Amino acid sequence: MNDLEKINCPICESGFSIPLEFWRDNRYPAVRLVKCCGCGFYFQNPRLSQQLQNELYGISYFNEGLFSGSTAAGTYFNQERESIRICDFASMIQYEGIIPRGNKRLLEIGCAGGNFLVAARQVGWNVQGCEISSSAASHASNQYALDVHAGDLISAKYPTGYFEMVCMFDVLEHIPNINQFLSEIHRILVPRGVLFIALPVQTQSLLFKMQRRLWDVKRIVLRGEKISPLMIDNIHHLWEFNHDTIERLLNKNNFSIFWERKISTTYSDMLVAEPQLSTTIRMKWKTIYLFINLLNRIGMEKGSRLNLKAESMPG
After folding, report:
1. Residue 201 in contact with residue 242, Cβ under 8 Å?
2. Which of 70, 163, 217, 293 allows an S-S link to 223, with CB 3.0 to 4.6 Å?
3. C-alpha–C-alpha distance, residues 301 and 41, integer Å
4. For the segment 287-300, what is each residue's pLDDT rounded down to a tens digit?
5. For the chain, which domains are there?
6. What is the pTM of this model?
């Protein structure tokens, strides 16, 4: 069996790349980070075969290493830690204003134990989850009575135009068939739906690597965690995004970014995108937008601004 597979760049389809550093995990063959010669995108090539990638997300993924916490905290599904995460998500929904209250359909891909879905359900959303780890999906279903599909997004076979919002938190960098994945999200979103993504960016910067090493030392020395000095979790990240490459990837799959926020300059980013409209529909909406604003200007000049609200349009 071939444990590694080679791929072309998912953004520009180039088969030429510059080899960079090796990423190793004692349990698997070494993979290599490369930089695309066509567009500058960083990604693993070669990477683990699909069978070995599936093994990465077994029970040990949440119960060992990065997500298990200190030895005293137990597993990722420790009740105290879950309560903290639910409160954090609830605060994000309440104060960030990114994910509004509503009684429409919301899907979280890579929902883990369902903590975000619980917070979203509390403000009225009709929530569903999709989680490739069967143990995590089972926990979310049993602990919180959530509707969670155990498997990948493609196998879930959701109806076309079914969700008003799709959310992902640190998931996109793990997805092997990334263009097919984004195309499927486009299909299941309603035409004016919203895609919310939080993901790591610019992780190849020197500053980030220094911060990461300091974090590893803190985990080992102060928390007593048992982790490999070889940055084990890196092998899970198939893609290394920056602000330019994530936008190009989304545009390729017919999404337009209309809101973005840097959580930190060296690691994490949040962005909101929507399905791109056809040229005809876009022109109709722009015509309506301009007409309503013209009426408002006329009303202002007469001292009686019309009570019309122009819906904001994608650029």
Report:
1. yes
2. 70
3. 51
4. 554 555 555 555 54
5. 50-276 (3.40.50.150), 281-315 (no CATH)
6. 0.78
